[in-house]
Amino acid sequence: MSEVYKLVLRLQKAFTPTVHVLVAKVLFAYMVSRIARERGDPRAVNTELFRQGVWGGSLAMLNLAPVDSLRRLWKPDPGGVKRFIEVFGSAAWHIFAGHVPSLRTEVLDRRGIVWAEVEEVPGRDAFYKVEAPEGVNTLFFVAGAYEGATQTVYRLLGVEEQWVSMWRPLEGRGICGFYARRDLDPREVEEVVRSRKPEFFDLISWNDSAAILEETLGFSIPRLQ
Amino acid sequence: MSKVLVVAGPKGSGKSTLIKALFPELPVRFTEPPIYRVYEAGQGVRVVEVPGRADTVRLLLAAPPWKISVGLLLVDSSQQPKADPGLLPLVLAAPQKALVLTKLDLASPESIELARAEAQRLDLDFFAVSATTGQGVPQLLEWITTGAKPKLPPLREERRAPAPPVDVVPVPSPRPPARATLSPEEEAVLKACDGRKSITEIARELGASPAAVKSVVDKLFSKGFIKELKPKVVV
């Protein structure tokens, strides 16, 4: 199965409009420079990059996702969600970073918490690999894009009231995130995620994510009390 | 002459725009003054526009043609909100002085807070204004005229819903689905989608937040009523 979709992705990439990575890097570097000048503090810069990513990921999902394929692939059980992430998590990375990433998924809770780690292939160039000021992590943009894209998928599938997803950078080599059922206690989901990756919510908390998703995309995510 | 108002700031900080917003009747020139530029406003107010040039500041401090009554030091919210140290002595010479953050409509909450902290550090009154939206201009004018201490507004709460980072135009599908039910919100947004207006512009037209419009656009997209989203530069 995975070999088939990798082949399909390569074919799709070969026949769709493409652009040299340098162009994307120049534009992205300009955006990061502007945000860095405006915000100054690296933590504020990372948060703004994340917010920009949320919006960009949502737009990309709307413009590029084949809604019928999303509906066919979506199976709302942990095993089905795992497979869904494997296909669409890789596809998104392939479209924007230009290569099929290494992707690991894991069911953290059978009731509906699935973990994913998307790692870049070392040595491959990508738009987000620009020299940034100290403390600025451009993968926050990528993580935000995955968060915005995943939430938009939920909306396209009509399950935005049933699932929640959040993504963060993975130590400079990719991103990680989770899909969780909304009927689970958010505090419990947060604890499960923290036990898998303690620093996950360090810069952008659960409630920060909820606020950003609400103000940019109009999602109403349950907040931690 | 009852009052001399100095408006000082680096190039591009919005000096001319602010003067025009404060005194619309003045024939303001939107070019950087060679040394400084003087306007005679009504009610005995003389407005002096001072660019961020060291020689101008030295000249005005060494041989002041008038006693400065009110000094405004402008900082641009799209740049680092730091007071220009070269202009500071001129503004500090005035008995009534303030730091003015311009382009408030483009300002992030962090830059507003940083500018406010900078004003506090320099012992200046603080105003945040937008000549585009008019926000903060009447309060600044009142302060210039009466000298009354400004009431600091709770800026974070007052900010309008943030505009999308990159605005997009929802393009309606040329062949919308024949059988689909739309909610009243979806109908209203779809009606506003003409292939030219962006999400922010539609939000403004409908009196909703851009996020709320985006949410409805997503649903229209999934139902096949919107074909694509085109990025658009909206200023």
TrEMBL record, chain A:
<protein>
    <submittedName>
        <fullName>Uncharacterized protein</fullName>
    </submittedName>
</protein>
TrEMBL record, chain B:
<feature type="region of interest" description="Disordered">
    <location>
        <begin position="152"/>
        <end position="184"/>
    </location>
</feature>
<dbReference type="InterPro" id="IPR027417">
    <property type="entry name" value="P-loop_NTPase"/>
</dbReference>
<feature type="compositionally biased region" description="Pro residues">
    <location>
        <begin position="162"/>
        <end position="177"/>
    </location>
</feature>
<protein>
    <submittedName>
        <fullName>Uncharacterized protein</fullName>
    </submittedName>
</protein>
<dbReference type="InterPro" id="IPR036388">
    <property type="entry name" value="WH-like_DNA-bd_sf"/>
</dbReference>
